[in-house]
């Protein structure tokens, strides 16, 4: 025990130095100037300065904010703004300002999509203005269930798979539809054994967890479903031991995540990672862990069969 203590302390220090401090430093490097610009605008708009001064400050800080993230490529955004302003000025007395403006923007977008603008630059500039949520970190780090994890990580991909794969395959049955969906996800991520193994394992885990918790919720009339219940749900039990059960399932989800993530070896060199993990690496790593998560899933499935 005395020998393990220094090792654990060294591990925590290593994590603090290479994970926590590095993340904070990189985050501050990215946003400190942007936060300073926001503070400057806030002060300017809270004071009784002339309207012209406020507009100039807003334009200057906005342009500099673009430069911070896009550097010289900000000129493409300014060019679009200038084109829109010119179209509106030329059509000031026309009742068709909207169609003309839409046409100008469409031509600009087509220039980018047809690679008349450098593809790398265009990909940085066009962005996506609708539904910017990509991941919900708290749902992943402190999961209620594995179902919540897979729907909170890479949200656009999850929604696409649900809309175009799962809903079309659900006529085959829920479990086959889940397998088809995760198989499609594995193919979209590339023909990689280790990713396919993880995703298909997720398919089995999420399905068994879902049906087990659904059955338990019906038997005990408790809010222990994979997803949080609505405020007006019909379950009688909502607190007390229900919270304990949900915490236990959360710990089980964290265990599954740790197990599935164990195969992504951080000690491997970058070249080996880029070449991809071999099937033997995946099987060996899980074998070293005695296939613990898979056995846990089997136990949950057997328990579900007993109470079904």
From TrEMBL:
Keywords: Acyltransferase, Endoplasmic reticulum, Membrane, Transferase, Transmembrane, Transmembrane helix. The keyword Lipid biosynthesis does not apply. One of its GO terms (biological process) is Wnt protein secretion. The chain crosses the membrane at residues 64-88, 100-117, 186-208, 241-260, 289-307. It comes from the Eukaryota. GO terms for cellular component: endoplasmic reticulum membrane. One of its GO terms (molecular function) is Wnt-protein binding. It is a multi-pass membrane protein. Its main location: endoplasmic reticulum. It is found in: Endoplasmic reticulum membrane. This is Uncharacterized protein.
């Amino acid at each position: 025990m005395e020998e393990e203590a220094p090792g654990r302390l060294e591990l925590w220090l290593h994590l603090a130095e290479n994970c926590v401090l590095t993340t904070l430093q990189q985050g501050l490097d990215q946003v400190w100037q942007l936060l300073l610009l926001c503070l400057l605008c806030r002060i300017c708009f809270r004071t009784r300065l002339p309207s012209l001064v406020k507009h100039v400050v807003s334009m200057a800080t906005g342009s500099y904010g673009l430069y911070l993230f896009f550097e010289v490529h900000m000129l493409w955004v300014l060019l679009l703004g200038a084109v829109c302003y010119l179209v509106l000025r030329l059509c000031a007395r026309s009742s068709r300002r909207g169609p003309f403006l839409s046409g100008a923007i469409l031509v600009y977008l087509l220039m980018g999509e047809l690679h008349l603008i450098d593809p790398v630059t265009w990909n940085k500039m066009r962005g996506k203005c609708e539904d910017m949520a990509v991941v919900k970190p708290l749902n992943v780090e402190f999961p209620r269930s594995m179902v919540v994890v897979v729907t909170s990580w890479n949200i656009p991909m999850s929604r696409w798979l649900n809309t175009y794969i799962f809903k079309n395959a659900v006529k085959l049955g829920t479990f086959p539809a889940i397998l088809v969906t995760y198989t499609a996800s594995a193919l979209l991520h590339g023909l990689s054994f280790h990713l396919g193994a993880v995703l298909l394992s997720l398919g089995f885990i999420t399905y068994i967890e879902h049906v087990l918790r659904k059955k338990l919720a019906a038997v005990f009339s408790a809010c222990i479903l994979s997803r949080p219940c609505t405020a007006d749900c019909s379950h009688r039990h909502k607190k007390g031991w229900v919270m304990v059960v949900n915490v236990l399932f959360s710990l089980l989800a964290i265990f599954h995540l740790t197990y599935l993530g164990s195969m992504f070896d951080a000690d491997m060199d970058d070249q080996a990672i880029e070449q991809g993990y071999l099937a033997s690496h995946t099987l060996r790593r899980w074998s070293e862990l005695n296939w613990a998560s898979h056995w846990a899933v089997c136990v949950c499935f057997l328990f579900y069969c007993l109470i079904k």
